[in-house]
TrEMBL record:
Annotated Gene Ontology cellular component terms: NatA complex
Single Gene Ontology BP annotation: mitotic sister chromatid cohesion
Parts of the chain that traverse the membrane: none
Gene3D superfamilies for the chain: 3.40.630.30
Name under which the protein is recorded: N-acetyltransferase domain-containing protein
InterPro entries, alphabetized: Acyl_CoA_acyltransferase, GNAT_dom, N-term/lysine_N-AcTrnsfr
GO molecular function: N-acetyltransferase activity
Listed Pfam families: Acetyltransf_1 (PF00583)
Length: 185
């Protein structure tokens, strides 16, 4: 039996809050500093690409690290990292409310949600998304958007249970991407 644990949220602008997670150990959720982005990039690459050639993963992680650093900081932008009791990065998400530089990219936007494989199915992804939703509300937005691959049934189910609805489908038939939104009213 998995015992519920408390998730402590320690972000600059909010009070500490306790959340019950379906996990076997405590997880600390923090605003990611520039020093956390190397681990976050490795977590993203291994979550999205799985077991691949180590050279490919190293190059992809390097590119991700550079991208995360370029987007770090600023008003209405936050990167969150979840850490295990041992201090390992076990979850990551980006929440961006800044004006988009690309036409057609809705804001505020949640992206790069990743949970380490051994921490999946414990409620951590849901907790990360819900924390982004509360941040977006604090920024005075009334809705939030994200994109998910149409073939990612587990993610689409989770988002559906959280109240997200498909607003657009993009991409080639072999790789459809759903833009989904949730009203925060």
């Amino acid at each position: 039996m998995i015992a519920p644990v408390l998730l402590f949220i320690g972000l600059r602008y909010s009070e500490r809050r306790r959340h019950v997670l379906k996990a076997s150990e405590d997880v600390l959720l923090l605003e990611a500093g520039i020093e956390d982005l190397g681990e976050a990039s490795v977590l993203l690459v291994t979550s999205f690409f799985g077991e691949r050639n180590p050279s490919f993963l190293a190059v992809a992680a390097h590119r991700e690290h550079r991208r995360l650093r370029e987007h770090h900081g600023g008003d209405k932008h936050i990167q969150l990292i979840a850490r295990s009791p041992a201090g390992d990065a076990v979850g990551y998400v980006d929440c961006d409310g800044r004006p988009s530089k690309s036409p057609g990219r809705p804001r505020p936007y949640v992206s790069d949600l990743a949970v380490r494989e051994d921490y999946r199915r414990r409620g951590l992804a849901t907790c990360l998304v819900q924390k982004c939703e509360s941040i977006v509300k604090a920024w005075a937005f009334d809705r939030v958007f994200l994109k998910v691959e149409a073939s990612n049934e587990a993610a689409r189910k989770m988002y559906g249970e959280l109240g997200y609805e498909v607003v657009a489908m993009d991409g080639a038939p072999s790789k459809q991407i759903c833009t989904i939104k949730k009203s925060l009213l």
